[in-house]
## 1
Amino acid sequence: MSDLNVSHTRLAAFITATMQAVGLPADDARTIGELMAEADLQGSDGHGVIRVPVYIRRILGGAVNVRPEIKVVEERAATALIDGDNGMGHLVMKRAAELATEKARRCGVAWVGSRYSNHAGPASLYARMPLAHDMVSLYFAVGNANHLPPWGGLDMLLSTNPIAVALPAHEEAPVVLDMATTVAAYGKVKAKAMLGEMMPEGWMIDRQGQPLLDPHRREEGFLLPIGGYKGYGLSMIVGLLAGTLNGAAMGTEVVDFNNDDTSVTNTGQAICVIDPAAFGDTLAFKQRVDKLVREIHASERMPGFDRIWVPGEQSHLKRERHLAQGIAVPASLVRELDAVARQLGVPTLADTPTP
Amino acid sequence: MSDLNVSHTRLAAFITATMQAVGLPADDARTIGELMAEADLQGSDGHGVIRVPVYIRRILGGAVNVRPEIKVVEERAATALIDGDNGMGHLVMKRAAELATEKARRCGVAWVGSRYSNHAGPASLYARMPLAHDMVSLYFAVGNANHLPPWGGLDMLLSTNPIAVALPAHEEAPVVLDMATTVAAYGKVKAKAMLGEMMPEGWMIDRQGQPLLDPHRREEGFLLPIGGYKGYGLSMIVGLLAGTLNGAAMGTEVVDFNNDDTSVTNTGQAICVIDPAAFGDTLAFKQRVDKLVREIHASERMPGFDRIWVPGEQSHLKRERHLAQGIAVPASLVRELDAVARQLGVPTLADTPTP
């Protein structure tokens, strides 16, 4: 069996079908299917269709509410706290991004946090949403499994807690940073395991502080934070902003959702949206972003570099390539997805009709 | 000549006297003296009294406005853009922090940016201000000299662009992260040069990509970002938020204020303040912060670590020690400060009367 090349629309339709099969309303299933396929489209392959088996297993295990009443439980002019009622994180954070955009238009800036949310895929999915309104966004999330001890410690109290920031440009592609506060995201470790490849040194260490290279031994060690103690600090701060502030899980409260099909995760996320119009002319701002991007592109290069990338550019190009040529789903993942399809009685990915 | 041990109040009084001697109004001079001494107090010794010679040189060179009209030029309910009128950054960002705190109390969150500001000392000085009101704060700044090329490049288009985040706890010390997006801040490189010490590998590289260890050769190379390309991305994003969004300098526009005594820097900074009361009960939030801090402290430790630190804790302890025992000013710096005092006709640091 070889890799399967599928269109983004087929991928979205397949995911939607699996979500509907386990009880999600059609609209919600479609929202999740589109957002997860969008993750694969932009090359966030640790967060797209690869997550279907875990999501479905957890929904069938009763860990996730398929008919949530997502609601605002605290609100001020420029803020809101959304209780996700343990629904899929994609639904909660799409709502949060929309609400924050609306509030930012009125107040200049807005901050919307979530609790009782769930894993929502790549951070940049949500940070990118306000770009359509020419707005700037920052996104923070508590990762759904602790893989990181505090600096100098052995207890895994912290996660890869990602940050994403997106800013619109005028003629250039938007600048979109999406980074785990660890050297590698855990999804990348699992992708390596699935591909049968070893990890480079610097991604993980074992409990003796020695490099851990085999992704199948990932349970025996932990991820390394970027910049040593700085990345540890950043991970903790992101967790405090996205989790603790919202009354969501942090530290020992975080549930490892990869190894648990029944517990509520009480996942926390936060999105901050800024309207550049509150700081002057939006077009002039976007042109200043263009100018900076062009200065960076034009930089003299070190030997061995044939181009200089701006954050988000590689995803942007992957997205264009995937739209034109389709997305390659690895054979091992296709087998897993086929098993899910058989279990749920929906067409396999290869047989899913595209709308 | 040996190191001079001085109290924080003497340090503040000396700095205040130098600022007044070059034309700043008494109140403004005192604000700057207190904030700069506070930097030394918390151990940010690359940002305290060590900066007096450069600040004075630039003021005497006409690069900084000693009688600025600092004013809000754009405003929404939860945002403001402050034009610093090329005044000292300390004055501009103290005003920004106060305004953001006031707006956050009404709106839940606020974001205040600056342009035509100047170097303002350590980021945490301003992120810490809202703690007195039980508020959370994020601070971003464009560094005042480019020491960092884009990843794979040789043109120094980016600075150490720091991030600071402060969150209040209940019984524990507040959590305060203050980090340059480079492995080392440039102030630390200069502190090493002043102490006659070599830098550890990983702080700087030369244009051939080789480690640069001698801090006196710092002009021949550049700082390394944390986590490689991630830190480059973070530095760029911080610069976009603190500089580009506000119409302040970024990229090639950044003036190296260490080597220029006449040019306006158009420095940009930004502060975001969040009122935890907008997300639930503030005391309950602060108790959750306590809980996380205690979990981290209690973590099992790796060999070689005798305690686990939470961001801000070392500064907190340095502050207590400096308050009790005074601050040691290195002999080489005392000589420089004595020369400034003689030039301005104010008492030397040793002879400055304490109020």
## 2
Amino acid sequence: MIKISCAEILCVGTELLIGDIVNTNAAFISKRLASLGINQYYQACVGDNPERLKAAVKAALSRCDLLITSGGLGPTYDDLTKETIAEVLGRELVLDERSLSRIREFFRRRGATMTDNNQKQAMIPRGAIVFDNDWGTAPGFAVEDEELGKVVIMLPGPPRELEPMFDTYVMPYLRKFASEIIVSRNIMITGLGESAVEARLRPLMQAALNPTVAPYCKEGEVRLRVTAKAKTYEEGLRMCDEMVERIRATDVGQYIYGIDIDLEHAVVDTLRSLGLTLGTAESCTGGQIASRIVDVAGCSDVFVGSVVAYSNDVKVKLLGVSPDTLKKYGAVSEETAREMASGIVSRLGCDVGLATTGIAGPGGGTPEKPVGLVYVACAYRGNITVDRLTLSGTREHIRRLSSNRALKMALEVVKS
Amino acid sequence: MIKISCAEILCVGTELLIGDIVNTNAAFISKRLASLGINQYYQACVGDNPERLKAAVKAALSRCDLLITSGGLGPTYDDLTKETIAEVLGRELVLDERSLSRIREFFRRRGATMTDNNQKQAMIPRGAIVFDNDWGTAPGFAVEDEELGKVVIMLPGPPRELEPMFDTYVMPYLRKFASEIIVSRNIMITGLGESAVEARLRPLMQAALNPTVAPYCKEGEVRLRVTAKAKTYEEGLRMCDEMVERIRATDVGQYIYGIDIDLEHAVVDTLRSLGLTLGTAESCTGGQIASRIVDVAGCSDVFVGSVVAYSNDVKVKLLGVSPDTLKKYGAVSEETAREMASGIVSRLGCDVGLATTGIAGPGGGTPEKPVGLVYVACAYRGNITVDRLTLSGTREHIRRLSSNRALKMALEVVKS
């Protein structure tokens, strides 16, 4: 069998070179290759030009054992990845009957007419291993060249086709080449900063060689990534899970809100398991917390609704914030945040009420209440918890960090 | 002066090769180069490894006149783009006093301690043209090698530093090399599909060679991109604007909602100019319309607030939807959408009320009311407009298209 020690990704498409699309395929494939322990030293993009594509393919094959291309498998005359690479590898293109009937079926189901050039998509290099396209028309495929000792995989460009095809068909195919598997789990942490996590776990992290344990911080969220190298996926997963349990047993354990989960899913899952419902009262976040919760499919048994109270008038009318409070302390104050949180609970009859009020900027700041001052409150069982945040960055960033903090607060409050 | 006919981008960083980050820098820089009429045939990524970086730089310089790198200018030992490229070009690194004092000032302002390795960031290849970093520490710079006839520009990796540095300093620098400038304007259209736009403008589009006019469609939004080639930016802009006026004078004109603007900014600008206020009542969009409006800085004179009525109970309590309507027609119905829209207007006292109710999926669909069925309503001056949408795609996509439709409806309704 061909031995794969290093891979390259070559993305084909003029739209990449003029900046019309961001190359998410390279990051997607890279992450998967890393998980298989397959190294990558170069990546490249090239336009829909046969000469330059040929040069890029030859250069890549001189450096790596596995070349993965994306793009250029479409039905039009300027889609020529397959034709060009088949020529480099000296393979003719043959009709794959199975792919042809799948493409016919794709058009039939949509009531659309299949044109002649769609038939071109069913042509594959002789002897190639086909990856069915259950999400579009062009199949992907792998060509194994035993003589060169190289594997070339060609995949369609649209991420909505490439991504599920990769996970469904390419990953199982590639596993046979992987001598070791890399498995990661992310321990999600709330209520403890990155340096505090590091300080508490330093001896454990330094001693951990396989799996390794490393802290990451992004948009105010801290996670510990546990990464194991193993012979099989199952063994790697078991090694990771043992480490997760060891970390759960330390004094960081109480700050773990989930494994491999984002905040909005963790909130929905946790509240559902406790039989609790949630509502939000949002000023500076402007509906972002609600929208993130509604991103979670099936959230309706937990999430009841939200009042986005951008104006003071709405804070009074729909949340029952006292005009005196607004006058005395201002809209951006601990007192207003408290009344917004308790207001949403009483108005919606939900169990947990989250509230935000702050100055997201860039305008609207004063010396006493600068841009980035945000109050986040959570009402639950008659108690109200309030946090005062002093954030910096863009309007977008301040709003994102504020909704993160609110979601975390919901988790902390119901667990305490 | 060095003549630049083609460029390459080389992004440096192991994090790209393991898929930890998506390469947005390449798309950003590509778009700018395209606007300058500078062609690009290849792009590459390489890790923080001096030997492979050197090989990639040499390969790129053998093909192009302008090489732009991003990344590897940080303070740590594995940041070595500058050192490696200076070696390839045979230039020594010298201390740039101006950059050093700027870095000192950066730390002073933040009350942080500057470490010795930050001083490394002030070292630049002798004779390089410095691009100040007003957004971080590492300056960018251009090295002009008259002998080779090549220009190498090195920029810091973080997009929040690279992007403003490019627009502020690199674009003016590069304009001197551009023999022709490419200027684009985007005509934003609502209420007319891509094929209808094309049918009405086909003769004009086919005859238009400079500027060209091409339709684009993304997430249900249609735009016409007008692209002119000219000697100067001003001339290109004038050519574009003349074409924009010609298109405004056609029967597509009435569907144009703005030039180079997104929907949320167009809604805020339009409503502000008419002195109108806005509120939203959201079910399936779950606060997304509100959150998009709040993305617009200074929206508070237009946007008053929103009720995210995810449960029927909230639709009744906070929006005054009649329980009989919900019982008779269901939550996802034209009647409920109407009552939500009029409810938000009467409860918030705003001029324009937008409402959405639908089934975003993946669950919750029935044969009569399948996933993707969405009603969008807009109340204004006692009238209520309702659209029934039958969308397909993911939950995320259905929600996005629904909020697009709602924002467009607000524009259409207040303009009619």
